[in-house]
Amino acid sequence: MSEPQFNEVIHAPMRLRICGMLHSAGEVEFAAIRDMLGVSDAVCSKHLKVLAENGYVTLDKRPGNRNGHDITWVSLTDEGAEAFASHIAALQLIAAGMA
């Protein structure tokens, strides 16, 4: 892991929760993320778009069996996993009064 580095993009509460969920679970369905956050599709999509534009997540649409609609799966990229770990390390330093 690189040096602990505070990350403004990841630090937004919804995006921090998304990254934490993806870090723990690997690949997660869009609907599960939306439900965990307790937000609308639009709000969830907005936060995922920011993470994707920064190269932190991938969005993979696959054929689904729910009324013929595709299912979007979300996962952290290697860059996203590194940025999340670095951000968490920075938060730990802040919490310990060392930063």
UniProtKB/TrEMBL annotation:
It comes from the Bacteria. Residues 15-92 form the Winged helix DNA-binding domain. InterPro entries: ArsR-like_HTH, WH-like_DNA-bd_sf, WH_DNA-bd_dom, WH_DNA-bd_sf. It holds the Pfam family HTH_34. This is Transcriptional regulator. The lineage of its organism: Bacteria, Bacillati, Actinomycetota, Actinomycetes, Bifidobacteriales.
